[in-house]
Amino acid sequence: MPKPSVAILHYSCPPVIGGVEFIIEAHARAFVETGYPIRFIVGRGGAGDPGIKTVVIPEIASRGGPNARVLKALASGSVPGRSTGRSRPPRRSSCRPCEGSTCA
Prior knowledge:
This protein is about 25% helix and about 20% strand. It is α/β, with parallel strands linked by helices. Strands 1-2-3 form a 3-stranded parallel beta sheet, with helices on one face. The chain is elongated. The mean pLDDT is about 80.
């Protein structure tokens, strides 16, 4: 019986350097060594191990997709989407305040 496929989802993978990237690469290699088909689903990076397939979806990168516009605006000193005259966004009609909530 074939082993089930395993996917590891994160906003980046090696060669991006980081603690999580190091750990997910080690986990992926352990799965490959035991015969599991593995793939990374990431926002950026690309596995160097030929036994690990990589799917890159830029929109889930921490610095890509919709976040890129926000980060660029913040770096220039502006706060995108900030409403004027209100301290918080308007409540949605389906929202009910939680017990002890201050968002009423």
